[in-house]
Specification:
Elements: H1 14-17, H2 20-34, H3 42-64, H4 70-84, H5 89-99, H6 108-124
Helix pairs in contact: 2-3, 2-4, 3-5, 3-6, 4-6
């Protein structure tokens, strides 16, 4: 699953996403995600996820001149998580899910947790597209 190209996933606007302008952003976001295993608390793990998401959002605005919508973000994030090769990704997620305290004021970190839940579900349900 690590060696699959982005075309194996349901990523819209694939030509734009694979453009040279975006490659640097992918590397930065991937580097942020790889730091998840180094973080000690659930909140800091979620902050790393958030930094990666923000890098992608800013890259879309800067390189492509448009904001990334939630559907595009959900399509891109599983590929990015897999490419980042986060050690024990599911264990990291389960740790955060078990020990993260939910903020009642609707913190942005909760949005990152929701995105991470979706990524895990997409990865679990992944099937290679038939040509």
């Amino acid at each position: 699953m690590f060696d699959l190209p982005p075309s194996a996933y349901t990523i819209p606007n694939l030509n734009q996403i694979e453009s040279p302008e975006m490659k640097f952003a992918w590397k930065l976001a991937s580097r942020q995600l790889s730091k998840i295993s180094e973080a000690k608390t659930p909140r800091t793990k979620l902050v790393q996820v958030g930094k990666a998401i923000e890098i992608i959002q800013h890259a879309f605005e800067f390189c492509l001149g448009k904001q990334i919508c939630a559907d595009d973000l959900v399509a891109v994030l599983p590929w990015l998580f897999i490419k980042s090769k986060v050690p024990r990704l599911l264990a990291q997620f389960l740790f955060v899910e078990a020990f993260h305290r939910i903020e009642s004021d609707g913190d942005q970190v909760e949005v990152y947790m929701t995105n991470w839940r979706i990524v895990i579900q997409v990865i679990k349900d992944f099937k290679i597209k038939e040509p």
